[in-house]
Amino acid sequence: MKTKNILFTALAALAVLVSCNKEETSPTGDNTPKSITIALGGTSQGSRATGAPITTTTPVTLSKAYVLFSNGTNLVKFKGQNGSEIYMEAFNDVAELKTEAGVTFHNLPAEVTEVIVVGNIERTTLEDCVGEGQTNTKAALEAITRTLAQESPANLNSLTLYGVSAELVPQTDKDDEAHSYFKATVELKPLVARLEIRNVQCTDLGSAYKKLVISQIALANLYKQVPIKGTPDSQELLAGVTDSYEEFFAENSAASGGTYDQVSLEIDDDQAKPTVGAGQTLCYHVFGGTIPEILARITKTDNNDATSFGYIQTSGFTGLTTSHFEAGKVYTVDLAFQEETVKQPDTKCIAVIVEVANWEVVPLTPTYD
User: Fold this and answer.
1) pLDDT at 182 over 50
2) Disulfide: which of 7, 280, 351, 360 matches 37 by Cβ 3.0-4.6 Å?
3) Under the phi-then-psi rule, with left for phi > 0, alpha for psi from -120 to 50, and beta for the rest, what region is 297?
4) Region at 255 (left for phi over 0; alpha for psi -120 to 50; beta for the rest)
5) How far is C-alpha 363 from the chain's CA centre?
6) Which residues contact 323 (CB under 8 A, 6 or more apart)?
7) pLDDT value at residue 24
8) Number of alpha carbons in the 13 Å side-chain half-sphere of residue 361
9) 50/80: higher pLDDT
10) 353, 300 in Cβ contact below 8 A?
11) Residues 6+ apart with CB under 8 A from 154
12) What is the overall mean pLDDT for the chain?
């Protein structure tokens, strides 16, 4: 009996390559069982959870993976590695998937048209919609939600990854049994974008103030949770500040999902100051779909040694090539501003500069109103 094979290999940014054997001229349209070989590569342990900047060569970490098969609408039950009929195969040791030989699934139902891979998520979370007695639909799987707390920088080495294979493309290569192959790609990406605030600078300090001390930094205009794949619910949006900065910091700091920091950044000249220190950075994870606002609470000391509070708030960034932040990218910001952009407690506002990482790294520059 002729079989069909699919081979998974991962590209540099967690792109997974799938090859499957061709029965006659099409990968679908008959009832021939399929065998699929899966191998993942191009992943390793990521950088430390907080502080260490991510670069274009920093890999996204895959610590465990779940492989599922779909006909485009429903998840398809298949014979697992132990011979039992299952809806998903778990790999707690991904090294097995990253070998050159990979892992082969034999006699998959002919209706299989997609391979789905979910990485770094608890099995119990998937079992709410996958398995005996569950809905076992692709839509239900993609509706699983994740929160900012779950996808925070503190969990850098266990961020949720998700990908679905692209269309199968015929190849000229043959396997040892002269089966023809098709190839497709699955791009495993984090659900979050990463925002790194690397330096802070008041470019004209000394005109009205001799010292500025930033005591709090927070983000606004971001989603608090999103489905694994799909459009976030607008009710989950932590909106930007439109009135009182004092109320924002008082009400949202504890519930901002890891997007708030108590800091002590003293700016006493017009030179850029690292937000944390050598080889470190302030970093935040946000879901895609918005342009986050950066807010900072500042103690101002004027030239007569009188102190008062003020705030800066970014109004946007130069360097963006899209209308919003995108998951899987790292946006790096130097928070440079002028004295006139430091506002009173109930007024607005700022703008900033950025870059993006393998993760893909994007440099941005803040702007201010």
Assistant:
1) yes
2) 7
3) beta
4) alpha
5) 17
6) 291
7) 39
8) 14
9) 80
10) no
11) 49, 50, 258
12) 77
Count of C-beta atoms within a 10 Å radius of residue 232:
18
Give 118's pLDDT tier (boundaries 50, 70, 90). very high
Written as six digits, the tokens of 173 are 């290569």
Alpha-carbon distance values, 199 to 19, 131, 220, 225 (Å):
45, 48, 19, 28
Maximum Cα–Cα distance across the chain: 89
Distance CA 78, CA 328 (A): 31
According to DSSP, the residues that pair with 271 across neighbouring strands are none
Written as six digits, the tokens of 294 are: 């950066």
pLDDT in tens, 201-235: 999 999 899 999 999 898 989 998 999 987 788 87
Whose CA is closest to 142, among 63, 64, 226?
226
Helices (H), ranges, 181-335? 245-252
Strand partners for 18: 184
pLDDT tens-digit readout, 65-111? 898 999 999 999 998 888 899 999 998 888 776 666 666 777 778 78
354, pLDDT greater than 80: no
